[in-house]
Amino acid sequence: MTIRVLLADDQALIRGGFRVLIDSAPDLEVVGEAATGREAVELARSTRADVVVMDVRMPEMDGLEATRAICADEDLAGVKVLVVTTFEIDEYVVQALRAGASGFVGKGVEPDELLAAIRTVALGDALLSAKATRGLITSFLAQPTGRPAATSTQLALLTEREREVVVLVAYGLSNDDIAERLFVSPLTAKTHINRAMMKLGARDRAQVVVIAYQSGMVSTQSP
Question: What angle do CA 6, 66, 55 make, to 5 degrees?
Answer without folding.
Answer: 60
